Amino acid sequence: MRITRRLLTVALALSAVSGPALAQSFPSRPITLIVPFTAGGPTDAIARLVGQSMSTTLGQPVVIENVAGAGGTVGAARTAKAEPDGYTLLIAHVSLAASASLYKSLPYDTATAFEPVGLVNTGPMVLAAKKDFGPPDAKAFLARLKQDGPKVTIAHAGVGSNAHLCGLLLQQAIGAKLTEVAYRGTGPAMNDLVGGQVDILCDQSTNGVPQIEAKTVRGYAVTSAKRLDVVKELPTLQEAGLPGFEFTLWHGLYAPKGTPAPIVAALNAALRTAVADPTIRSRFAAGGTEVYPEAELTPAAHQTRLEREIATWKDVVAKTGVSAGN
């Protein structure tokens, strides 16, 4: 018994000193930040912006790797299976929580496969259409969708993507089924919207606002409860005739489950430095997104949000009956 107690005392003493030492030695080589969508999309742009700042803080390169497919679940699976040493991270958004219910079988348990590092930013989606779509304003736009239904094509970045979830809620709200066109990312989806190959797209503001301002597409509405300063001329969907409609996206960083707490803390500190940078905040604001309040930037607050979102989307998926079919 005395030997067991002595070993326990030694183990506790070693763990007490190993935490700080581990944090001090990390990182000693490049970190891979997996973006589960194609290059050129909004999540990719945010990852590169934040990753560059974290690289400076941590003193090692943060290398972006695009691992697209299946609404972000391919990249998430790659991260979940990686060594829990802090050298493989994932940036994900609402799709990570929604995919837990949308996909019948995933190679990981969304609720337990990751260590949340911290939240990055939050913001609305914007509803845009090809330039010659026709309706003069948001109310007429919604009327057109209700009237034409399947004749209208709505692009998205795969089942479970923000664009897909937004489109799903929109169709539910207007009581009409549109024809969905899936892409491997919102980058190519936006390219086809600009080219007129699809009719509409519900896209992240970071990706949609620049195109609306450049007049390559036509903006109709935003999905937030209030208008966006960067596109104040666009009404909310609530103002356009859909009471209570609100959809906000959020991005967060994740490490594989089991990543040591000191490493998670070091990554969180680097992320906090990034989102506190005035230049990054300005870039976020230009796209209609903002950084979370200080109290919500902890790994614990991120875990709470993930759990809440998993429960929320489980209810939505149950009500709509939509499925990824696997």
Account of the protein in words:
The chain has 326 residues and is of the alpha/beta class. The chain folds into two domains: 29-122 and 249-320, Bordetella uptake gene, domain 1 (D-Maltodextrin-Binding Protein, domain 2), CATH 3.40.190.150; 124-231, Periplasmic binding protein-like II (D-Maltodextrin-Binding Protein, domain 2), CATH 3.40.190.10. 46% of the residues lie in helices and 18% in strands. Strands 1, 2, 3, 4, 5, 6, 7, 8 and 9 form a nine-stranded mixed sheet that branches. Strand 5, helix 6 (162-174) and strand 6 form a beta-alpha-beta unit. The longest helix is centred in the first third of the chain and has 24 residues, at 2-25.
In short:
This protein is α/β, with parallel strands linked by helices and 326 residues long.
What's the domain count?
2
Radius of gyration (Å): 21 Å
Share of residues in helices: 40-55%
Q: What would CATH call the homologous superfamily of the largest domain?
A: Bordetella uptake gene, domain 1
Structural category: alpha/beta
CATH class of the largest domain: Alpha Beta
Mean pLDDT: 90
Strand content: 15-25%
